[in-house]
Q: What sequence folds into this?
């Protein structure tokens, strides 16, 4: 028998209730909307806090970490809500607890520590530690209101509790354990606070942000520049040991945990360390103030950013009656800091910031093994915040990549100002939507000029990265994929000093030999190298010959052909930028340039009319500039008949007596003569010397050049040039055969080449008959079929060798 399945009583009713409850929950969620961002526990806003403070100070505590990674409570007394500026308010508190008294006051690194008060038996979060003071009022600090921070979390914006330029008088005096505060000054940074003399009843405070730089000597140029930049942002900067070790694991973050935001990690690292204010799901709020921002001193954040959020370990607190600070070591990664705002830093737990590796391989004094360091740099920090461009202060900044490479070089050198030289190969892998590109530059360096070798040799990495990411038109999205620097450094010197520039002959169109005399470092023997300077045809020959290293020429922009009024450069693709950087000159290149001056109104600063680059194995110091002698040359007749004599006259400026002038005559198509065709004496009168020269009859166009020696050892020989055109001579002969009339044109000189134009007379006007090439013997022929001989004329059209002739007409 089959078995009948029985339905359980109430089963359908049970499912219906569950469905109804689920739908009700969905409706409720839809009605209430998403929960507002913020700390998980109860908070007390400014209005409520001010109301409670009307009855006097409130007991409370802050949560911070004094040792290791475990937060602890430290009693505080919340004193007042004060108007810190026209943009917002801050909460004044103090702590007389021994933990604070023993270290000298609220310490740098405590920023972000949450501050709670007791509200009828319930601990409520009111803000985060953000400002403290030096010297006076130890244990007194300011906190950023928690509602500002939640607003920043919600909308990445906040009321701006910005530092003020002058003292703010409090609505009512605030009594602290060390005196009554009547006025408040918020300085942009610790340096500015120390430079402010506090009046009686006045508290001077600054941000408690703590920045650490690891891997750079404090005396290095790179460290000084970076520290100055960070201090402008209100950060207290502390030097730290180099990194590179596997970061220690730390417990999960919680309110009061030490934390860091790193913009590079590895051997060289830079980060801002402080305290977690609260966690809200996968979001963490930190610090209670901005960490990067601008240089205005108004406490504005940098906005969207990308840095690695880490745990941290507090190794201890450095006690000081002046400025205590936590000694902190960043630990394992916890997520990504994504927003730097005036009320704090917003971070997302999990994930990681895009970054690129920077590798340095450095050999010093031919050591057997190179010193290899690897640092990973936040792509945002390296390409947007600190790409190595001129910064907001108008100062040259090597940028994040430059700092990293400097650190690797200093690590190998074990010195910050070592004199010496070296060679580097810097390779940058870069990409955008069009594909990957590789830019590589081989360069030489020498410390002539006082810079540390580590800073100098890092320059290429900074320059390449900043040039690749610089996008003034916003047309490219560029990613730096890797930076690799291989360096060989030595205490030996590769420098040389420029001594003299010489010309064997005056400049002229075409290739010119320029002799450059110099002394190598450590040698008294004068050395000479030869450079070829190509002068374009038609260039004026009165000007300056200048010699300097490519590095000096690039820094001065002297030979830049664009003036301030020139149009802007057109947008470049990444491929074009990469190609331009590959072709750029290097430090060992010697630049020889010619700039015109004199009669055309040119002079110092005029764009180069000619430029050449000569690779060398030295870094040259100094620069040379010599003026060519000013001359003028004119022809009595610029166009002459075949066989007529050539007459030129000229002038030599700044003559101190009669001047011997060489006259060089070069017929068209012939090589430039090496010896003068004729030598004349220019007679001096009134500081100038003039001459007239009669040359032999010319058969071809001639380029006449007059040359005069240099006036003295500080000048160069001069030249002036004029071209005389010689008209070819054309004749026309007529013959007849077989019903055709034959016309033969003869052109002299026979090697004039070119073409002749035949025309016939018809209907009272000349019409084209034929254009014929001049052949062997200077002959050109054409024929006309006619009973009677047509009247024909012919003309030589002209070539580079001879000018056009007049018409020859048949009878």
A:
């Amino acid at each position: 028998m089959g078995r009948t399945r029985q339905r359980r009583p109430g089963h359908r009713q049970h499912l219906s209730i569950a469905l109804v409850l689920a739908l009700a929950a969905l409706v409720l969620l839809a009605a209430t909307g998403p929960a507002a961002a913020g700390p998980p526990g109860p908070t007390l806003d400014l209005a409520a806090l001010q109301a409670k403070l009307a009855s006097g100070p409130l007991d409370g505590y802050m949560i911070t970490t004094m040792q290791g990674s475990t937060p602890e409570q430290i009693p505080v007394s919340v004193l007042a809500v004060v108007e810190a500026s026209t943009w917002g308010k801050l909460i004044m508190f103090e702590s007389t607890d021994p933990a604070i008294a023993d270290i000298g006051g609220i310490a740098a690194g405590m920023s972000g520590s949450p501050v709670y008060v007791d509200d009828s038996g319930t601990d409520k979060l009111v803000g985060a530690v953000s400002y403290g003071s030096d010297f006076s009022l130890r244990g007194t600090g300011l906190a950023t209101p928690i509602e500002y921070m939640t607003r920043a979390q919600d909308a990445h914006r906040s009321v701006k509790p910005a530092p003020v330029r002058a003292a703010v008088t409090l609505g009512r005096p605030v009594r602290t354990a060390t005196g009554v505060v009547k006025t408040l000054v918020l300085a942009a940074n610790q340096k500015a606070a120390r430079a402010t003399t506090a009046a009686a009843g006045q508290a001077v405070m600054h941000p408690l942000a703590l920045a650490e730089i690891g891997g750079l000597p404090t005396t290095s140029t790179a460290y000084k520049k970076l520290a100055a930049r960070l201090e402008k942002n209100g950060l207290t900067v502390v030097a730290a040991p180099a990194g590179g070790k596997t970061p220690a694991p730390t417990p999960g973050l919680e309110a009061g945990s030490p934390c860091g935001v790193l913009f590079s990690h590895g051997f060289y690292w830079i980060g801002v360390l402080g305290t977690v204010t609260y966690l809200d799901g996968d979001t963490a709020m930190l610090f209670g103030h901005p960490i990067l921002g601008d240089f205005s001193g108004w406490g504005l954040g940098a906005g969207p950013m990308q840095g690695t959020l880490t745990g941290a370990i507090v190794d201890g607190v450095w006690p000081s009656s002046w400025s205590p600070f936590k000694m902190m070591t960043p630990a394992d990664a916890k997520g990504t800091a994504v927003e730097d705002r005036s009320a704090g830093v917003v971070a997302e737990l999990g994930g990681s910031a895009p970054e690129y590796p920077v590798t340095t391989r450095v050999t010093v004094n031919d050591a057997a093994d190179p010193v290899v360091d690897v640092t990973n740099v936040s792509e945002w920090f390296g390409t947007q915040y600190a790409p190595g461009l001129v910064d907001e202060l108008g100062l040259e900044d090597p940028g994040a990549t430059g700092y990293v490479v400097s650190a690797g070089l200093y690590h190998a050198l074990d010195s910050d100002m070592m004199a010496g030289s070296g060679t580097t190969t810097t390779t940058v892998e870069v990409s955008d939507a069009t594909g990957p590109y590789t830019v590589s530059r081989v360069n030489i360096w020498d410390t002539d000029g006082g810079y540390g070798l580590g800073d100098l040799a890092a320059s290429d990495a900074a320059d390449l990265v900043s040039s690749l990411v610089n996008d003034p038109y916003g047309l490219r999205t560029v990613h730096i994929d890797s930076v690799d620097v291989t360096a060989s450094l030595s205490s030996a010197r590769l420098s040389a000093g420029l001594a003299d520039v010489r010309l064997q002959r005056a400049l002229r169109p075409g290739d010119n030999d320029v002799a450059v005399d110099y002394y190598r470092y450590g040698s008294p023997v004068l050395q000479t190298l030869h450079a070829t300077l190509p002068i374009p045809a038609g260039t004026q020959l009165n000007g300056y010959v200048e010699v300097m290293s490519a590095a000096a020429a690039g820094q001065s922009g002297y030979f830049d052909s664009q003036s301030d009024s020139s149009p802007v450069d057109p947008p470049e693709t990444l491929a074009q930028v990469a190609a331009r950087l590959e072709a750029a000159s290097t430090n060992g290149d010697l630049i020889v340039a010619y700039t015109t001056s004199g009669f055309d109104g040119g002079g110092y600063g005029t764009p180069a009319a000619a430029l050449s680059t000569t690779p060398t194995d030295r870094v040259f110091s100094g620069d040379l500039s010599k003026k060519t002698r000013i001359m003028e040359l004119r022809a009595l007749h610029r166009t002459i008949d075949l066989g007529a004599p050539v007459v030129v006259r000229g002038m030599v400026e700044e003559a101190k007596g009669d001047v011997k002038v060489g006259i060089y005559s070069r017929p068209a198509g012939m090589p430039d003569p090496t010896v003068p065709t004729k030598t004349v004496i220019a007679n001096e009168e009134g500081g100038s010397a003039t001459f007239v020269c009669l040359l032999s009859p010319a058969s071809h166009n001639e380029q006449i050049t007059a040359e005069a020696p240099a006036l003295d050892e500080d000048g160069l020989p001069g030249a002036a040039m004029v071209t005389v055109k010689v008209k070819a001579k054309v004749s026309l002969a007529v013959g007849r055969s077989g019903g055709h009339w034959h016309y033969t044109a003869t052109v002299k000189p026979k090697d004039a080449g070119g073409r002749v134009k035949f025309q016939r007379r018809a209907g009272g006007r000349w019409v084209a008959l034929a254009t014929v090439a001049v052949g062997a013997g200077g002959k050109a022929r054409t024929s006309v079929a006619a009973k009677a001989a047509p009247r024909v004329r012919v003309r030589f059209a002209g070539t580079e060798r001879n000018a056009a002739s007049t018409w020859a007409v048949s009878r």
User: Anything to note?
Assistant: The chain has twelve helices and 46 strands. The first strand starts at residue 58 and ends at 64.
